[in-house]
Amino acid sequence: MDVRHLDLLRELAERGSVTAVAAATHRSPSAVSQQLRTMQRQLGLELVRRVGRGVQLTEAGTALARASSAVSTAVAEAEATVDAWRAGSVGVVSLAIFPSAAELLLPGLVHRMRAHERIELQVADRDVSEDEFARLTADVDVVVGHRSDGAARPDHRGLRVVPLLREPLEVAMPLDHRLAGRSRVTMADVIGEPWIGVPDGYPIDRVLTAMALQSGVAPRFVHRTVHLPLIENLVAAGLGVALVPRHTSARRAAGRFHLATLEDVRAGRWVEALLRPERAARPAVQRVLDEIRAEAAAAEAASEEARRG
User: Fold this and answer.
1) Dihedrals φ, ψ of 244, to 5°?
2) pTM (2 decimals)?
3) What is the pLDDT of residues 202-219, one digit of tens each?
């Protein structure tokens, strides 16, 4: 059994089409199809069947695609052992991170990585809906994503999930707002306000959806954007209120907008690192992950200390 053929099955299971697999693996679609046919012939099993103009994995193909993750991880661990004896932590590590987490974590992470001169960190901003972060792991070594409190955990089977921190969400309001003198507010106090929000499906939006279900009042949105500094600017300009991440926004709040804690709603988001197991086996990737965890812990501690002070 050729390990490379197993990898193709897994890619097909995750990407959904021969064309997408070909683009991701730098092959032609005909070459991918030929290798899949070769594997079926060698094993004597139907792994892929044509459906319409595309293809679909059979039950046997799906089962083998799932098993391929363990095989790829074992191979990667063996290669990592050789690399560790030869050179230690060295190589290129790609990181995808959503913008507000990058604001919080990236400056310190880059500083920490200066101690690892043989690791080249390549960073890309990627802000997608809560359910889309897992898909990025097919092309990126480490993906930093987030999910909302209370929502069902996404299906991350086959991935390594590393919790980084829980960031509370607070209500940002203009300095002249009627509630700006209060450190705590209730859902009833703010649900009827004009809201500046994020697109559907993003963690902060899911918290507002939960508030709407509990209160029976649908939020009235005056603007939606994924750009946190813009949200803060619109709040500061008096156009509405917003849910914003505490650790990130608190550093820019003074003299611009007021932050208040929601006392009757568990409002927050979990920031996590997602990796394919075979990528996590690489010493350089593990080193980057260790430094991200250390920076997340430091950022969380610094934010809480500033809040108490």
Assistant:
1) -135, 155
2) 0.72
3) 888 888 988 899 899 999
The dihedrals phi and psi of 186, each to the nearest 5 degrees, come to -105, 165
Indicate the range of 4-13, 30-39, 246-255 predicted with least confidence.
4-13
Q: What is the pLDDT of residue 101?
A: 94
Overall fold of domain 167-267: D-Maltodextrin-Binding Protein; domain 2 (3.40.190)
Query: Measured between alpha carbons, how far is 24 from 153 in angstroms, rounded to an integer?
Result: 27
* pLDDT tens-place string over residues 128-152: 888 889 889 988 999 999 988 766 6
Closest by CA to 202, choosing from 161, 244, 234, 260, is 244
Domain 3-84, what architecture? Orthogonal Bundle (1.10)
What angle is formed at CA 146 by the lines to CA 140 and CA 152, rounded to 5 degrees?
115
Confidence (pLDDT) at 88: 59
* CB-based contacts of 75, cutoff 8 Å, min separation 6: 3, 278
Residue boundaries of the structural domains of the chain: 3-84, 88-165+269-308, 167-267
